[in-house]
Amino acid sequence: MAVSSLFRLTLSLCLLFISVSSAARFNELFHPYWAPDHFAIEGQTVNMKLDKSSGAGFSSKSKYMFGKVNIQIKLVEGDSAGTVTAFYMSSDGPKHHEFDFEFLGNTTGEPYLVQTNVYVNGVGNREQRLKLWFDPTKDFHSYSILWNRNLVVFMVDETPIRVHTNLEHKGIPFPKDQAMAVYSSIWNADDWATQGGRVKTDWTHGPFIASYRGFEIDGCECPTKIANSDNMRRCTSSGGWWDRPTLSGLNLHQSHQLMWVRANHMIYDYCTDTARFPTVPIECQHHRHH
Ligand SMILES: *[C@@H]1O[C@H](CO)[C@@H](O)[C@H](O)[C@H]1NC(C)=O
Fold first, then answer.
1. Does 86 contact ligand 1 (Cβ within 6 A)?
2. What pLDDT score was predicted for residue 229?
3. Does the Cβ of 104 fall within 6 Å of ligand 1?
4. Taking a C-beta distance cutoff of 8 angstroms, is the pair 75, 136 a contact?
């Protein structure tokens, strides 16, 4: 009896410790920057909601140069039409860089789409869209961005879905000179998100909840308090694990995975949208071998 209650006490302390440490990890790395009252922490999970009154968003407290960001997300269950949940990195200002995952909701049973985009010096227009090979509303899956001097890789459960390669030697600018913060948000985008904006958000099905856990940022941190140029020098000179030669490109297995994703799951690629870009964007001509 005594042993079993001691055991139970130990067990509950452990569970308590896990949940506290996960919330602590969120609080250590991130803070809500939009609608803090639309957040709820439930055990290991951070829930963020969209309702008629507001969306919500969190951002990292620090900025980073290079490294890997990984978050596990469970997207809005059931009817998510009209909603967009985004997970991205971005620097500031009109010439900012940005790496985006945008999850476009859908009516119950219809597939979520994942749109990725890359902004360089304030210019985006590099959308790709794919359907996932699983239902992202049933379980947590990991979404990550790996960033170094040679490439930006978007990954879903460690499978690369997109690579943006440094082609500076071809005269194409590559984002490697601005520290970036990490963000996630959920908002109403029913003017464009679902079936081109034809399906509107049904507020009677709200609130729309995206759930998060497993927050990981492993990069060169540039604390915003230190003068910017000092930061940049420290960050750009540091040879972190992300500078390892093996990470300057995909390995053979990853290249095969990316080919599989592109062949079987991609439904839109700006590189092949000749109506929109009569002249194929230069980086597409060079990215073609991926
Ligand atoms: C939603 O479902 C429809 C029908 O299956 C599909 O055509 C569309 O691509 C899906 N996603 C979005 C974001 O519209």
1. no
2. 64
3. yes
4. yes
